[in-house]
């Protein structure tokens, strides 16, 4: 019926999209990558140092790994509470989101944010509002891999 | 009978233009550090304003700004017959709680960041319509309440996009009166249409709102039969750097000459060094600029005719997650020293 009108609208939107694409500042990809690489690398190096420390004290490989995760999560939570982690994240991007410290930051930030709505409907209900997807799809993948192992293992 | 007060398609003119007799603005610390710090009535030392939550702080900010504007004319809240007010939060709670304390008959407005112009023109219509003699139009926004409602928890380490804008912490209030001489007057206004050209990036509101602002400005000039240089300044609300670069291209397309009397509150309110990426946004952005520097300059006679075009991106996190595009709106209010 009004296909001509629809088409005109589409063309107008496309024209505008082109204009926007030309005008928008380009994200600073190279700078962001360097920041992410350096910060992400430093966090991982710190993890390795902690792990070597625990291994040298006689913990097994698996136990040293768990202890390292505990320490890193604690540090990220502490720095989130002190208001430092978001300053780092602003520059480092994926470099501080991808390591386990980013996961801790997402949970603690949500907990701090929603504390004012109380412990049940605030902290309890919203603590995983950002980290939730990681958990859900982490579980899904775990189940899938488990099944693969059962079938082919 | 021809309608005498309506102009063209979308504009109205005020027969007895209501006068802005008093105005006030209170802003947050970051805004105070900006280029207009000395023009604001009051700069907060922190974002809590002595309250337990940011939402309470924003409501107090709005309430205190209204009180401050009233005090400049020695009015009490009971002297005011109508309060037209809005903010960015769900159910416009900042305004509701401010109105609860002030006990002024209250109309709540929501126009996202366009609310200052929307409130101003609604209050002006109520006065010129002969229903009220004294009204107050006010809005507020708060960086952290907006951030947690529309984006991420504030302590989360996320990277902001280059097109992202910084929600202004600030409130502005204007007292409008009938039949008082002296002061800038609201002479006409244009109610905008929603224009949506399919922009979906919630980190780029400027691009979503620019077509609406261009449309409203063009409609205003057509309806009122005024050339664009009739105004000493045409100022949009919060298009930011990206949006105002776009609107300049749209002006050319519409045959409007914007230079040199066009600017944008979102670009003006912060310094380049304040790391706000594309500029300021929020209802408080146009409100703080209007009730701070712009009206001050009108009072000093440096600006005689001002067209305030506050712009709003009328989306919610829910609709954007559902894949809806961002509807943009802009309302224009002409302020003139007669």
Unreliable stretches of chain B, pLDDT < 50, 5 or more residues?
A: none
Q: How does CATH name the architecture of the largest domain in chain B?
A: 3-Layer(aba) Sandwich
Backbone structural class of chain B: alpha/beta
Q: Which percent bin holds the helix content of chain B? A: 25-40%
Number of helices of chain A: 8
Element-by-element helix/strand order of chain A: HHHHHHHH
Largest sheet of chain B: 7 strands, mixed
**CATH superfamily placement of the largest domain in chain B:** Stage V sporulation protein AD
Most extensive interface: A-B, 39 and 27 residues
Overall spatial form of chain B: globular
Largest sheet properties of chain A: none
Q: How many structural domains does the protein architecture of chain B include?
A: 2
| Principal-axes shape call of chain A | extended
In whole angstroms, the N-to-C terminal distance of chain B is 29 Å
- Per CATH, the class of the largest domain in chain B reads Alpha Beta
Strand content of chain A: under 5%
Please tally the β strands of chain A and state the result.
Answer: 0
Q: Which percent range fits the helix content of chain A?
A: over 70%
- Number of DSSP E strands of chain B: 15
């Amino acid at each position: 019926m009004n296909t001509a009108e629809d088409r005109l609208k589409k063309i107008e939107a496309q024209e505008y999209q082109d204009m926007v694409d030309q005008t928008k500042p380009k994200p600073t990809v190279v700078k962001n990558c360097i920041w992410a690489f350096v910060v992400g690398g430093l966090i991982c190096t710190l993890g390795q140092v902690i792990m070597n420390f625990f291994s040298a004290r006689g913990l097994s490989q698996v136990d040293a790994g768990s202890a390292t995760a505990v320490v890193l999560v604690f540090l990220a939570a502490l720095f989130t509470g002190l208001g430092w982690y978001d300053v780092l994240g602003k520059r480092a991007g994926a470099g501080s989101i991808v390591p386990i410290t980013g996961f801790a930051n997402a949970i603690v930030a949500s907990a701090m944010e929603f504390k004012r709505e109380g412990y049940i409907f605030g902290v309890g209900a919203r603590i995983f509002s950002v980290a939730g997807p990681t958990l859900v799809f982490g579980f899904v993948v775990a189940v899938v891999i488990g099944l693969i192992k059962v079938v082919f293992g | 009978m021809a309608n005498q007060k309506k102009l063209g398609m979308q504009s109205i003119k005020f027969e007895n233009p209501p006068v802005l007799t008093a105005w006030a603005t209170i802003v947050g610390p970051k805004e105070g550090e900006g280029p207009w710090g000395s023009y604001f009535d009051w700069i907060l030392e922190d974002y809590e304003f002595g309250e337990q939550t940011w939402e309470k702080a924003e409501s107090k900010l709005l309430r205190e700004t209204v009180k401050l504007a009233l005090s400049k004319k020695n009015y009490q809240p009971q002297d005011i017959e109508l309060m037209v007010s809005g903010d960015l939060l769900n159910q416009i709670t900042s305004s509701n709680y401010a109105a609860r304390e002030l006990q002024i008959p209250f109309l709540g407005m929501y126009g996202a960041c366009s609310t200052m112009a929307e409130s101003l023109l609604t209050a002006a219509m109520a006065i010129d319509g002969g229903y009220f003699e004294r009204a107050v139009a006010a809005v507020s926004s708060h960086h952290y309440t907006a951030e947690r409602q529309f984006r991420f928890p504030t302590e989360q380490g996320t990277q902001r996009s280059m097109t992202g804008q910084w929600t202004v912490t600030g409130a502005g209030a204007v007292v409008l009166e009938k039949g008082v001489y002296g002061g800038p007057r609201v002479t006409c206004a244009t109610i905008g249409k929603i224009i949506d050209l399919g922009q979906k990036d919630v980190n780029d509101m400027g691009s979503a709102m620019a077509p609406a602002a261009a449309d409203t400005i063009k409609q205003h000039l057509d309806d009122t039969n005024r050339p664009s240089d009739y105004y000493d300044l045409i100022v949009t609300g919060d298009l930011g750097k990206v949006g105002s670069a776009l609107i300049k291209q749209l002006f050319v397309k519409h045959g409007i000459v914007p230079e040199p009397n066009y600017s944008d509150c979102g670009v003006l309110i912060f310094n380049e060094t304040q790391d706000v990426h594309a500029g300021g946004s929020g209802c408080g952005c146009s409100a703080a600029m209007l009730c701070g520097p712009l009206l001050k300059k009108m009072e000093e006679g440096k600006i005689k005719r001002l067209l305030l075009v506050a712009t709003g991106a009328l989306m919610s996190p829910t609709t954007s997650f559902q894949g809806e595009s961002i509807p943009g709106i802009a309302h224009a209010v002409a302020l003139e020293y007669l």
